[in-house]
Design a protein that fits this description.
The protein contains 3 helices and 22 strands. It is mainly beta. It has 2 domains: 180 residues, Immunoglobulin-like, CATH 2.60.40; 170 residues, Immunoglobulin-like (Sandwich).
């Protein structure tokens, strides 16, 4: 099977020894290594929530780094270096900025017993209760970085998708020199739904689409992929009433679109989400049955998906474009009922496409 590569940034790091002999483990505070780092500059990012004319077909250039933090730690997980890199150079490294990283840059005096590299790309100030830069510069342990919490609502800038990558530093002998190196790929924390709307004209007519909602998603995730705040508004345990505001213009930020006058059904509705659990899609609409003129407020819920071969889909991964075509009129009108199921076919994009078929509830 062809190997799929996340569409993130590739960060290539190499620590080249200045020593001609083996690393002197008896002197662990000897900072004499050189670090070479380069970021692939060919990237871009669409908005997290968007109404667009067409789906993104190829997301292989998805993320734009405006700021990265490089953390280098020892075998015990103690962070030895915290290196911020932005569009403007830091005072500690006046020649080092994002453009320099794209060209390739060498840092000197790196800890020679370093074992792990972590890179955080485009951290969001909204994810921090205190000053973001001060907090990141105070990280003491590898595990502190892994435990940092990201909120999906802050991942909505068209150029600043949060990225994360880590890698182990390996040692090789090259002649008389020891060379340490690590390869790190920065990947998006999120995946992306790209949703189209249609209806079955043999069943319903005069359709007005009022809302599209993502449901059953985690509001937050750590860099270690631990989710928090599972959002399941209109949950199965609730008694559903047609006028409750759970699927109206009051929902979790950046995870819905609502317009009582009607959404433009010719558009694509796109939302980014942490792929830590199986998400759902709810569509709110008004329509008349094809055999009468009684207009009703209705809902359809895609609570499951199938792949292009018709098999149940469950392999949710970061950095994918999930394409879903919703056809209303084929499922129950109750988005939280026990017996409502809709088969939706999904296609997966990389920040490549995956086509999925909805399973309607």
């Amino acid at each position: 099977m062809k190997k799929l590569i996340y569409a993130g940034l590739a960060a290539i790091l190499m620590i080249a020894s200045c020593q001609k002999d083996v690393i002197p483990f008896e002197n662990p505070e000897d900072y004499t290594q050189n670090l070479y780092i380069r970021l692939n500059p060919d990237n871009f990012a669409p908005a997290t929530k968007a109404i667009t004319d067409a789906r993104i077909a190829d997301g292989s250039k998805f993320a734009t780094p405006l700021k990265v933090y490089i953390f280098i730690s020892d075998e015990a997980g103690n962070i030895k270096h915290r290196i911020p890199v932005g569009t403007v150079a830091d005072a500690a490294n006046p020649l080092l900025d994002i453009d320099a990283l794209k060209a390739g840059y060498r840092l000197n005096n790196i800890y020679k017993l370093a074992k792990k590299v972590q890179i955080v790309g485009n951290p969001k100030s909204g994810n921090f209760t205190e000053d973001m830069d001060a907090t990141l510069k105070s990280m003491a342990l590898y595990s502190d970085v892994v435990a940092l919490v990201n909120d999906i609502q802050y991942d909505n800038d068209p150029t600043e998708i949060v990225l994360y990558g880590e890698g182990s530093i390996s040692s090789t002998q090259e002649g008389d020199a020891i060379r340490l190196k690590a390869n790190v790929t920065l990947n998006p924390m999120v995946s992306r739904f790209q949703i189209t709307l249609d209806y079955d004209d043999a069943v319903i007519k005069e359709v007005t689409f009022e809302g599209v909602y993502i449901r059953n998603f985690y509001q937050t995730s750590t860099f270690g992929n631990v989710g928090g705040g599972l959002n399941s508004q209109g949950s199965l345990e609730d008694d559903y009433t047609i006028d409750q505001p759970k699927f109206a213009g009051n929902y979790y930020q950046n995870m819905f679109d609502y317009n009582l006058a009607g959404l433009d059904a010719t558009k694509v509705f796109a939302y980014q989400f942490f792929p830590l659990t199986a998400p759902e899609i709810v569509v709110r609409y008004k329509a008349k049955n094809s055999n009468d003129n009684i207009e009703k407020l209705r809902f359809v819920r895609a609570k499951g998906f199938k792949d292009g071969d018709g098999n149940a889909f469950s392999n949710w991964l970061p950095g994918k474009l999930y394409n879903v075509d919703i056809v209303v009129g084929r499922g129950s009108d109750d988005p939280v009922g026990e017996n409502v199921t809709l088969d939706v076919t999904i296609t997966v994009g990389e920040w490549a496409a995956v086509n999925l078929t909805p399973v309607y509830q």
